[in-house]
């Protein structure tokens, strides 16, 4: 099948209203997950235990009445959003906005970003499915285990440093996108003051947490201590040991919750 035929098939698939609704539901599920993570971070601020990452949020659903059914809904929604991002990677822009497509350098950057998001949402869908069948595991434990295996060689440590730098770069990009308000380009309407403030705070908060997680990965590689490479959970819990740690955790909870609220905005107003 030629490239034009592939693009045509993808175009026809994304014309489906049901497909678009399912993909938008992925933003809703992402918003709920961030709100639950914010709730866990808030509890950490007051001395409670918990994993402040996607696995901690999914575990709460898995342990609640009817939570397994909701997890399967999350699997479908995340999978649909992953497929939509894959469609954007094929087309080089928004699937239902031909004017947004670009075959130049900008288009290839958009393809790379869409493909990266596709991988992330596939991972979310996989994690939700694992928790739905009762086989979920802490993301922090998984990250630490993988880091320990990589640290057995110099090449593995180098890979960890590269991964840490990539995560930091993604975090910095989130902060940049929030501060410059570039996220408004992703919306069908310009939003209003409330949407703008929510996006700025949400993107800046998530970017800061991601950058912190990436920095811990590098520290873990340099110190040969895999226990430090526990992802977002480790980055959040590191705040507890800093001066004014409780206040920082509360601020982190507010920021992550704000990103969750912005995800609901994306579900309704995102250019798809």
Radius of gyration: 19 Å
User: Which geometry do the CA atoms define?
Assistant: globular
Annotation field: number of helices: 10
Terminal-residue CA separation: 25 Å
Which structural category fits the helices and strands?
mainly alpha
Instruction: Please summarize the sheet with the most strands.
Output: none
Extract low-pLDDT stretches. none
Query: SSE order in H/E notation?
Result: HHHHHHHHHH
Q: Helix proportion of residues, in percent?
A: over 70%
The chain-level mean pLDDT equals 87
Query: How many individual β-strands?
Result: 0
Estimate the strand proportion: under 5%
**Could you say how many structural domains there are in total?**
1
Task: Annotate the secondary structure layout.
Elements: H1 3-13, H2 17-45, H3 54-63, H4 67-91, H5 105-132, H6 139-150, H7 154-179, H8 193-223, H9 231-240, H10 245-269
Helix pairs in contact: 2-3, 2-4, 2-10, 3-4, 3-5, 4-5, 7-8, 8-9, 8-10, 9-10
Organism: Gordonia insulae
Transmembrane segments: 69-87, 114-133, 154-176, 247-267
Protein name: DUF1206 domain-containing protein
